[in-house]
Amino acid sequence: MLRPAHQLLMGLAAFLAGTLPAAAADVARRPNVVVIVADDLGYGDVGFQGGTDIPTPHLDALARSGVRCTSGYVSGPYCSPTRAGLLTGRYQQRFGHEFNPGPPGPGVEAIGLPLSETTLPQRLREAGYATGLVGKWHLGHALPFQPQSRGFDEFFGFLGGAHGYGPFPEGDAGPNAIRRGREPVAEKEYLTDALAREAVAFIDRHAAAPFFLLLTFNAVHTPMEAPARSADRFAALATPRRRTYAGMLAAMDDAVGRVTAALEDRRLAADTLLVFISDNGGPQVNGSSNGPLRGQKATTWEGGVRVPFVVSWPGRLPAGTAFDQPVIQLDILPTVLAAAGIGRPDDLDGVDLLPFLTGDRKTAPHEALYWRFGQQRAIRIGDWKLVEATGSEGPKLFNLASDQAEQHDRSAAEGETRERLEEAWKAWNATLVEPRWGRQTGRQPGRRRAPAAAGAGA
C-alpha cells in the first residue's frame, strides 16, 4: 500500500503531466544518455571480447545488459579524430580534423574541433538536456574550443591528449591541468577513481531531468601508472608492463561499475541509453592486446579501428545479444537524437542504430565504411575490406568473414571486387578536404589535395 506522502507525490506528478506544455512533457519522457569512452583499450582485453587474463566483470555485465556490436568501428585510429567524429556524427576528414591537434604552443592556439561543426551536446542542450563532460577532451585548448564553449554545461577533466594518474594534491596551473569548468583544481584520488566520482556526482545532480554525460577515461593510455591497490593482484601476468596495464584496466572497469550502479540505485537504468566504446585499438606501448586482429593504434588495420562497442538500453534494446553488421562511432549521435526525439540533420554520416539493434530493420546500417589517415586508407563493404596501411606495401583485399586477422590478400582472385572497393573509396575521398593541420609536426608527405568544402576555412 502506498503511504500518503507517496500518493500525494504521484497525484502531483499526474497533475503536472496533464497541465505542462507538450514540449516540457516531451523533455520529461526523454531518456538520459551516457557515453563512455576508453582510451587505447585493446580489442581483446575485456571479457566480453574473449579476454581471459584481466577480469572485467562490470564491462561484461554492461555487455550482457544490451547489444554487443561485434563489428564496431571508429572513424580514425587515433584519439582526437575519433572524438571529433563522435561529437559531430560526421567523418572528421570532411572538416579537416584528420590528425591530433598537438599540445598547446606557438601556432596551435587556434587548433581544435572546427567551430563550423555543431556538436552532440549543443544539440541536446537546445532540447533541454543537462550536459556534462568528465575526463579527457583533446579537441582544442583555446577558449573557443574548450568543452563549455562547445555545448557542455559542466566539465571536470583535462584538455590535452594524455595525463598522469596522480594523485595531484598540489594541483597544476599548466595548460593541461585538471580542471573543474575552466579553473585548475587539486586532485587527491587516482585519476580514474576521481573521474568515476565526478560522473556519479553529475548523475546525482541531474537525476530528476534528462541528462547527457560523456565520460572519457584516459585509461588505459600511457603513462603506465596503476593504482597502488592493484600491485599484487596481477602478479601472475608475464611482464611488468602487462601487469601495470591490467591494474589500470581493472580500475577503469571498477569505475564503469560505479556509474552503472549509480544508475541502478537511482532507478535510472531503464531510462538511460548507455554506449561504451574505445577511441581506437590498443598500441603495443601500453601492453594491450588486440586479440585476433592485425595492427594497432594509428593504423587502418582492424587492430587500429575495430573496437569493443556496446549499446545498452534496458527494456528498449534486447539484452545479451550480438549485432554482427558493421557499425561505427559516427552512429552514436544520430542514435541518441532519435532516442531523444530530436530531428536528424541532413549532413550526418552516421545512422540511427535503434531499428537495426531491435531487429525491426534487417538490412545492414551502412553500405560502406571508410577510413583515411594520412597515406593510410581503408574501405569495408559487406565482408570485404580494401586496406593500405603501415606495412602493407600497397592496397590489399581481405574477406573479414573468413580472415578477420587480414592475413590472406585476395586481390589476384577477386580483381573485380578490389576495383569496386577502390572506386568507391576514391569517390568518397573526393568529397573530403585537406587536413587543417599535419600529424602534429607538419603536413603528410605526398598528399593529393582534396577539394575544399563550404565553410572549411571557418
Q: How big a fraction of the residues is strand?
A: 15-25%
What is the CATH topology classification name?
Alkaline Phosphatase, subunit A
The total count of helices amounts to 11
Q: Could you name the CATH class?
A: Alpha Beta
Judging by the overall fold, what is the CATH architecture? 3-Layer(aba) Sandwich
Q: Could you give me the name of the CATH homologous superfamily?
A: Alkaline Phosphatase, subunit A
Q: Show unreliable segments.
A: 1-28, 441-458
Please give the number of β-strands.
16
Cα distance, first to last residue? 61 Å
SS-derived structural category: alpha/beta
Radius of gyration: 22 Å
- Global morphology: globular
Description of the structure:
By secondary structure, the chain is of the alpha/beta class. The protein has eleven helices and 16 strands. The strands form three sheets. It has a ten-stranded mixed sheet with strand order 7-6-5-4-8-1-9-10-2-11, with helices on both faces. Strands 13-14-15-16 form a four-stranded antiparallel sheet, with helices on one face. The protein has a two-stranded parallel ribbon with strand order 3-12. The protein is globular.
